[in-house]
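Because discrete structure vocabularies remain unfamiliar, it helps to consider an illustrative case, giving the amino acid sequence and backbone structure tokens:
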Amino acid sequence: MTSAPTNLRHQVIRIYKDLLHLGRDYPMGYSYFRPRLYKAFASQAGIIDEAEIKKGIERAEYVKKGTNSLQTSLERDSADKDCH
């Protein structure tokens, strides 16, 4: 019974760190991104239901993909401007 919550805890920490890492290159800056990320995670800190935690992890993965796509798009646009 304790392995599932421990595993979920590790997943939450991993996705938080991944998002923090992506936030370094966020267009509005890390100082804008980090407090909002913290606030989003802190607001969910009291959740103890495993299903709800898993849904939160899925939401965070979705945000991670969107942030990653945004950065890729911005890098591509920047590279296109440099070529012309």
Residues 50-83 form the longest helix (34 residues). The mean pLDDT is 85. The helical segments are 3-23, 30-42, 50-83. The radius of gyration is 16 Å.
